[in-house]
Amino acid sequence: MVDIASENIAADTAHQQTSESAASQYESDFSPRKLRVALVILLGQTFATSFLPYFAVPLALLPITKEFGWSPKEYSVATTSSLMWLGALSGVCLGPLVDRFGVRPILVLGSIAVALVTMSISLAHNFLSLFLSFGLVGFFGSTGMHYGKVTAALFNKNRGKALAILGAESAVAAAIAPQIDRYLIGTFGWRQSFVIEGLIILAIVPLLYFVIEEPGTAGGSRNLFKHFKRTPSDAPANREIAPQNLEGMTLKQSLTDKVFWLITLAGIIALLPRGALFTYFSPLFAQHGFNGQAATANFLSLTTAAGAIGALIAGFALDKVHDARLAIPFKLGALLSLILLGIATAQFGGMLLLMFAGMVWGVADGSLRPFQGFFQIRFFGLKSYGSIMGISAACMSIMLGIAAPVVGFIQEKTHSYDTAIWLLTGLLVFGAALYLFLGPYRYSAMIGAVRKDSAQQPETRVNEEDRLRQTATSHPR
Fold it and tell me: Using one digit for the tens of pLDDT, what is the confidence trace for 366-415?
């Protein structure tokens, strides 16, 4: 791993020494083409994944548990746990397909599938049927993680800023989702709300088909299966390079690298508060003296909107501070939000303190978007992005799927959610410390760049490895 790091850091240094005229041969990060793709990514991430049904989980707890006579713990297993566990299986199964055949077929077909299984939730009549329906939503909805491969490769010289802007707009749009779910469940009932959500997802699919492009590609055929019969030797240099020929580490290299496991463990801990407590927000807030459902909808909307602030701060900082330890202050912010959540009650602090906790939570949570994409591409590259992200996401999903029932178990034993909150605060301290050991970035900021002239031609890719070698040759180390 040291050789990979030293070679790519040297290449990155050599690139920084090139003149502005040489750098200008690459397409701007804010060209109309890139902004068009980014807009559709935003819509796809927000409305064509498991996003809508996921945000409906805490809001549907009361009507579903009342109808079936379940406890909150049983409900969390049938919804949150099944969604997470089968989502983990999706990452392992579909990640290698993304790296072999491309992102577009997985995103388009996955979105169609998640729309259909979201509508199938309306037909659930027992524990097993609801478990399977939410599990399939998790499996097909997890294909949305592969938007990250397109986004991370799309932006180069201002990757952190671009990820921040995209993440910020996504956070603002996502703030609408809990209100949509609340309106649908309140107006049409929980069964019909999932049918409507499925139709919304289907409406986004044509945009994905016509606009989304493969990493390093400008223009090209809309054929979803053009890489299914292609081998690496079929692609001539600098022309339509197959997905598996992109620069980066292999899956085997990543799995034997301690940095991969440090990033994965840190990511699990960062996501644990939302994953563990999300299902129980309504009864948690009710326990603290608030109107459970109303407080949940407002809290989720505020945290998601505040995520825009966190995404912007983190993204802009990533382009200024070239050090992975930049993530630590944001993790400490998450720690503060949990402390505030634990002490906020209707009598102490009231709704004002609860919403302030939600705002701090949102800022910390929003920073995960740019950090995740930025670290993935700068430490591991593009070659096995789908496989690496799939394994990492699988580990996270398994742990998050376990976390919700554990919180339910703790609540049954202690009759309070506060014990779980304080346990999570301790874990966040440990998670923040992990970023001290990641080391320097390994891959150039210009990985996945497309030349200006390539952006005007169909099905053209930049061979990043060749470009970096040429740059390093022009500027001897």
Answer: 888 788 778 888 898 888 888 888 888 778 777 877 888 888 888 888 88
- Hey, which bits of 282-429 come out as E strands? none
Query: 171 and 307 in contact (C-beta within 8 Å)?
Result: yes
- C-alpha 272/C-alpha 274 separation (Å) is 6
Residue-range domains of the chain with CATH: 2-14+30-221+242-471 (1.20.1250.20)
Matching residue, tokens 């999932």: 194
Helix (H, G, I), strand (E, B) or coil at 192: helix
Smallest Cα–Cα separation from 271: which of 396, 87, 119?
A: 396
Q: What was the pLDDT predicted at 237?
A: 40
Beta bridge partners, 218, equal: 460
Q: What is the pTM of this model?
A: 0.67
- Residue 374 burial (10 A CB sphere; 0-12, 13-18, 19+): buried
CA separation for the pair 247, 169 (Å, rounded): 29
Residue 309 contacts residue 88 (beta carbons within 8 Å)? no
* Cα atoms in the 13 Å half-sphere on the side-chain side of 265: 15
Per-residue pLDDT at 55 exceeds 90: no
Token readout for 361 is 């939570």
